[in-house]
Design a protein that fits this description.
By secondary structure, the protein is an alpha+beta fold. Helix content is 29%, strand content 12%. It has four helices and four strands, in the order αββββααα. The chain has a two-stranded antiparallel ribbon. A two-stranded antiparallel ribbon has the order 2-3.
């Protein structure tokens, strides 16, 4: 989609908005610093429009059937971002294991900076062509 087309559709057809409660840091004038609310506190609402709301108003739509676990990770918060990083790491770790790679102490990819696993898209986009790149025990 071109951005202009999406904006035109939103104005012409009134694509519905969704309100999402979220946690947002803010500047406190009284404390003269940025305040970060506790994890369990939501202090703001963000308005979103889903791309799916535009599809019924356009003539050119292409869809692909893909493995959701391998191709989709909704990112709406810091926690979602960490889950997305971990999901990608576990996917890439599976590719490496399938290609003969071994992880010491049966380690599993996580979102922690020292336990991440990523295969560069310059090396492989979907796990292909990794055979022979890893030493086996």
């Amino acid at each position: 989609f071109r951005l202009d087309d999406v904006l035109d559709l939103a104005v012409k057809h009134g694509v519905p908005w969704s309100a999402v409660s979220t946690r947002s840091p803010h500047f406190s004038v009284r404390k003269a610093r940025v305040v970060r609310p506790p994890e369990e506190v939501t202090n703001s609402i963000k308005l979103e429009q889903a791309m799916g709301g535009f599809l019924q108003h356009t003539r050119r739509v292409v869809a692909m059937h893909v493995d959701r676990a391998a191709e989709f990770a909704p990112i709406r918060s810091d926690l979602d971002a960490r889950i997305g990083v971990q999901s990608l790491g576990m996917l890439h770790q599976g590719w490496i294991k399938s290609a003969g790679g071994i992880f010491s102490d049966d380690r599993v990819a996580t979102s922690k900076s020292d336990q991440r696993c990523e295969v560069s898209p310059l090396v492989s986009y979907g796990g292909e062509d990794l055979a022979g790149l890893f030493e086996t025990a």
